[in-house]
Amino acid sequence: MPNAFALPSGQIIITDQLVKMADSQQEIDSILLHEIGHVVHRHGLQQIIHGSIVTLIITMFAGDATAVEEMIVALPAFLLESHYSRGNESEADEFAFKQMVELGIDPIYFATMFEKMLASKDDLKQNDDDAKSKDESDKDYGKFLSTHPSSPSRIQRAREYSDKYFK
Ligand SMILES: [Zn+2]
Questions:
Q1: Structural domain boundaries of the chain?
Q2: Tens digit of pLDDT for each residue in 104-135?
Q3: From ligand 1's centre to the CA of 86, what distance in Å?
Q4: Which residues have CB atoms below 5 A from the ion given as ligand 1?
Q5: What's the predicted TM-score (pTM) here?
């Protein structure tokens, strides 16, 4: 599935499918820089801390120590499924845009990459309508989009950076 995410250790994982979707190195760079933004701002760590507090509160109420073990087992899945907050997303975006400007990469590539992901999501949805149940097809695509909501405003913001520094 097309996806990219940052581990709290600072490692960034990007899947083949997402790389294939890109038409240029600059588009891949824009995704990587966005993920680096999450690492720099320690968003992954905030998520774990937030998740741990929730689990500990549940444990206190339930008096169940195995819940903590379950949490540790569930952690990788939690990282894949969890959503960053809207604030975290725009913080990572701003980091990516500024780094792109500094590196001489037009932030327009961020916009084109996200537009492509949006378009492929619509395409797949159409193709999958007969072939699979909706639940099944929803799982296959848009993992990155589901954890990184691609609102038109972030694409717009990338275009603003592009206009300001590359026009
Ligand atoms: Zn993100």
A1: 4-166
A2: 999 999 999 998 888 877 666 666 555 555 45
A3: 9
A4: 89, 92, 148
A5: 0.72
